[in-house]
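QA checklist item 7 of 12: single-chain prediction sanity check.
[x] sequence parsed
[x] length recorded as 71
[x] structure emitted
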Amino acid sequence: VSYVKIEGSYIRNIEVDERNRLLVSHIHQIVSKMGIKTIASFIEDRETGEILKGLGINYGVGIHFGTPRDI
């Protein structure tokens, strides 16, 4: 396993939900000690991205980075 993707339901409202913030932080801490990178999904705005960056999350996906497009 090289990456752990953190489900969007834990990311949503992370700016006001302390329990989700703690859970995401601890997931990142545990897997990073095992050499695994974290990916947060459902990043909808800059504030959420900044919070996740502050927690050390490695990568993110979501509408903040661009809307889905046809491939």
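[x] summary fact logged: Residues 18-33 form the longest helix (16 residues).
[ ] second reviewer sign-off
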